[in-house]
Every structure is written in structure tokens, then in C-alpha cells.
Amino acid sequence: GENVEQHPSTLSVQEGDSAVIKCTYSDSASNYFPWYKQELGKGPQLIIDIRSNVGEKKDQRIAVTLNKTAKHFSLHITETQPEDSAVYFCAAERRDDKIIFGKGTRLHILP
Amino acid sequence: EPEVTQTPSHQVTQMGQEVILRCVPISNHLYFYWYRQILGQKVEFLVSFYNNEISEKSEIFDDQFSVERPDGSNFTLKIRSTKLEDSAMYFCASSPGTGRGSYGYTFGSGTRLTVV
After folding, report:
1. Where would you tag: which of A101, B5, B73, B94 has the fewest CB atoms within 10 A of its CB?
2. 3-state class (DSSP) for residue B2
3. Within 13 Å, how many C-alpha atoms sit on residue A27's CB side?
4. How far apart are CA A45 and CA B55, in angstroms?
5. Is the previous residue joined to A44 through a cis bond, with omega within 30 degrees of 0?
6. A43 and B42 in contact by Cβ < 8 A?
7. pLDDT string in tens for chain A (111-residue length)
């Protein structure tokens, strides 16, 4: 079945710098890749997604890239702010439509 | 913005007891899911539900688990005889559609289940 690997597990970034989280997936038939942000005590919130017919998507300070050939996708956050501190999960949708999550990256924005 | 609502937010139960976790999905959504997150670990799929039946379940979703949509709005997860290892956050999610290139899920805020 689908397997989603996510790195790093923890990331500390100075406020104002950029953060990059990387994921790989195994099922070449997956074609939908959402990213979720989970704040303490809350459920995962969809922040951005990308479909396989697109290589890059941007929404203000957040961008995602997808390399279908290599089965890599990444989340880029620029000009990081304290409120970006959270756990971020990448995910991939399998052919049977079940979303499989990565293990998460705990992002700390340092003052 | 429409929300998925879960109750209770926190439930403490004795080992061996039955618990029912409740969810109200977004009203025009057709697909419903339960996921589980053990403290500090990844979000794991439990079960998906469509058209009043289970469409897929994981190996975690054994005979002690069941789901039900008793009326037009609620979606429940029942754990029949709780074990210590069932302690986790349980998230309900719903989606308007599915299929390749789908819509993403909306998650509830979760129910923290503590089995003592």
C-alpha cells in the first residue's frame, strides 16, 4: 500500500527565515497531495494541496512543489512567523481515496 | 465556514468499558472518516464510510470498533471494550466527494480518549 515518508521530524527556524518540509510517497497512482497544519489540541487543518497535473502551487507565504517522477513533494514556508509554529503533516491520496499521512514535522519558529 | 463537530472533547473511561465518540460532519458531505492519533505519533486511518456502509477499514479497526450513522447528521464511532492502548485522539473527517484528485478532508477538533 501507499507509504508516505516525511522529513525532518523536527525543524527549528529563525523568525523571518524559510522552512522546507519534504515528503516522498510510494504509490505512483496517488495524484492528490494535501498538507495539514495541526496546532496544539486541535485537529489537522488543510492549508494547501496540489494535484498531480501541477508542479507547483503558491498561496501567499506557502508553496508546494511536486515531482511526480521522483515521487517527492515539499512544503515551503517563507518569511516565517511565530504563528507558523505547529505540526505539519503531508499526505497522499491513494487510488482508493484513503488519505495516508506522513509522520509529521514539528516546526518551531525561534524569536 | 462549515465545521465538523466532535463531542466530547475529552473522555476518560475505565478499561473494558464501551465508549461512543460522536461527530457531526458537514451537512452536504457524503464521505466520512475516522482517524486516530496516538500521542506524538502520526494520524492513522481507521475507517471510511459512504452510503451508509463501511467502504474501507484498516487493520486497526477490528471487531471492537463499529461505526454508525444513526440519523441524517450524526456519525459515531463505538469502541466496545476499551483497552489501554486505545488511548488516543480520535478525529472525525468528512469530504464532499472522492475519486482521483479529490477534495481534501475537513477534520474535527478531535476527542481525546483516555483509558485508565
Report:
1. B73
2. coil
3. 20
4. 24
5. no
6. no
7. 788 999 999 999 999 999 999 999 998 888 889 999 999 888 899 999 998 888 999 999 999 999 999 999 999 999 999 999 999 999 998 765 678 899 999 999 999
